[in-house]
């Protein structure tokens, strides 16, 4: 009797449950689902605390001068206006910058907005937790409380001596530490300052003072909002300073979750999507590049990134240079860095003495030409592959019966490998191009 074959089951696969669990696991690790779940939890907890939890009512003296300031009915920066300054202004700047100035991808736009939202909600949640737990009286507590006549001035009293009937006005008098306006403003405007600093690359060499001042402007606005709380006698300096520090730290925390360090070469680009292969980087600082020239398996990485001395080459104007070496030594990776297809984490690439990371990508590539070893040819005639003014550069052009009007077929099927490469050479040079790259080891003379 022939042996029975049972196909192997995957781990956890039981009546299709493993497939579902695996799909959920992949979605969880390759999306922002954990971030959104955490955001929803923070927002829910904040709303419950804000509307359902009363603060600890610390005992006080009604003759304590520190809490005997007048209660301002009209605030310089009310809650709704603080939302405008700390939420809608940063949000508008982020959307405008990414959509109009940077013309950013959806991933960059999403990372910027999600980081801002988490910064504001986390700061509000932490602030309210501390506010209600500490129960520190505000500077205007006595005016809010309106103590009953005959209350002993030199004895510790509690909320029971208060005659104020407005629930929120009375209980909010024990929510002084830390300042909520201060933490919220620094969480929003501080995040905006970090974002602008990254986009303008102010911590890179030779950055002008104007860019730095532009990044400091949101922090100045947040500081003015915080100071207004002292002017309204809602908080003292201690409350405002701690609230500002809390908001600033949360802004930094939220920013760094999605963006690299401000001193990084890639500070203007967010981290890749969770689960992306680009999240894995070589220990020596090179990004991983999937290419047949690298070889050595997925874990090997370019040899250049692992060498002690790295690569140091100076190519003068008018010179020709060639990179030669075994598969996996980093030839294609080096050319990719020169073309700004990938960013580097260490070292510099200078063109005419200028770091290419500081040069606009479009302007930089206007002066480059690339000749790949697998040139892309489209179905049509030879004339359609490049402008006629370059006819003299294709030396085999007289051999086809129809010369420039010869049909080359899909993907240049009627041409030999050498003819395809000669077409690539002929169409690559350009009057504006100053540097040409040939990414191959198989060019024929």
What does this structure look like?
The protein is mainly alpha-helical and 445 residues long. The protein has 3 domains: 226 residues, no CATH class; 84 residues, no CATH class; 66 residues, no CATH class. It is 42% helix and 3% strand. It contains 13 helices and 4 strands. A two-stranded antiparallel ribbon has the order 1-2. Strands 3-4 form a two-stranded parallel sheet. A hairpin with a 2-residue loop joins strand 1 and strand 2. Helix 2 packs parallel to helix 4. The N terminus and C terminus are likely disordered.
What are the key terms here?
42% helix; two-stranded parallel ribbon; two-stranded antiparallel sheet; disordered N terminus; disordered C terminus; 13 helices; mainly alpha; 3% strand; elongated; 445 residues
Secondary-structure map:
Elements: H1 17-29, H2 33-52, H3 79-101, H4 106-134, H5 141-145, H6 167-171, H7 180-200, H8 209-231, H9 237-258, H10 303-306, H11 331-338, E1 350-351, E2 354-355, H12 361-365, E3 368-372, H13 417-427, E4 435-439
Parallel strand pairs: 3-4
Antiparallel strand pairs: 1-2
Instruction: Tell me the β content.
Output: under 5%
Poorly predicted sequence stretches spanning 5 or more consecutive residues: 1-8, 10-17, 277-308, 388-393, 441-445
> Helix/strand/pairing class, anyone?
mainly alpha
Number of domains: 3
Envelope shape: elongated
- What is the rounded distance between the termini? 65 Å
* Number of E-type strands: 4
Biggest β-sheet: count, sense, barrel?
Answer: 2 strands, antiparallel
- Helix content percent band: 40-55%
Mean pLDDT: 80
The radius of gyration over CA amounts to 32 Å
Order of helices and strands: HHHHHHHHHHHEEHEHE
Placed side by side, the strands forming the largest sheet appear as 1-2
Number of helices: 13
